[in-house]
Fold:
Amino acid sequence: ASALALTRSALGLHGLARGVTVDGVMTAQVALNDPRYADTEQLVRVATSMLERLSTSPGIDAAALVNYPPLSMIRVGVPVTIEGQTPPPGQLWMARYWVAAPGYFHTAGIRLLVGRDFTSADDRTRGGVAIVSETFARRFWNTTDVVGRRLRPAFPKSNAFWIPRVTGEMLTIVGVVGDVREDGLPDAAGLPQLYLPYAQNPTSTLTLMARVSGRPAGTATRTIRDAVRAADPQLAVSYEQTFDDVIQETFARPRELAWLVGAFAVLALVLSAVGVYGVMAYLTTTRTREIGIRIALGATPFDIVSLIVYHAMVLTAVGVAMGIVLAPMALWLTSGLLFGVGPFDPLTLLTVAALLAGVSIVASMIPAVHAARLASLSFR
Structure:
């Protein structure tokens, strides 16, 4: 049951609309960890220069800068304070966060629902701003009409590459975007999503994204490198991947786990068929004389086969009943890896029960037919 549930989950994840557009997008990571970039203004200046050069390069339809791509292996959260609201005692409100430059939502294919995108004016000389996801808006205000509301992310004071250099002030919401669906990730946790402008909250590690059309995304690799070197020849580009490859890598683990467990499930099914065949072959051998007497008294070969298959189905029914009782427990243990399949999913349980019943019928019919044929020949 767990194997079937994981397989159904993997198939569901493959076709899920995630709220982003992956076609024709190339990504590359750049680390600005050099002491030259200890100054926040210099860090923002070089990052902005890279993005501007990339945006104006021939063949690039759109370009963006973000601390890490959506749906990547890096997924971090931050506690948030909502102005005028208090979380329940002992709890923290958490949000998944990204730090992005203007044009990110257009490049990544994330829909802007309400308000505006970040602009070049959203720098440290202006008041802090933020953009939230639809789920964020509805969770805390039960509406998407939240432009002008305020919040504060509680980032720790750290030099870690994923921690933005924030001012700690209250941020004013200027827009609402569609959700990036993280369903199926083991640590997704359904967190609402928060976006901060890079010029106000820079990080030392960033990802450049470039969209091209009419040709493979990988053709933008050289253009990204040239833009980075033009801004600073000493900077290196790493983790060059298409956006599609980023997402495929993220979901490789649950998908591969599903196929691995599925392979073991097929092996277990084969072993169960062999076991049923062996047990029924032994039982029919010990009852050969009884079968012969039944035939002599008028039983047909069909009656004999039905009798043996009936006994096999009784044993199978007992096993299936025990499995249905225990299966939800196994599904519950793997619930963190499931998407769209619950621990008490009736379709999964009924499918497994029907499959086991079919295997038992086939496995028991072989010795039953063989025994009926031998007994009828012996008592002619």
User: Anything to note?
Assistant: The mean pLDDT is 82.
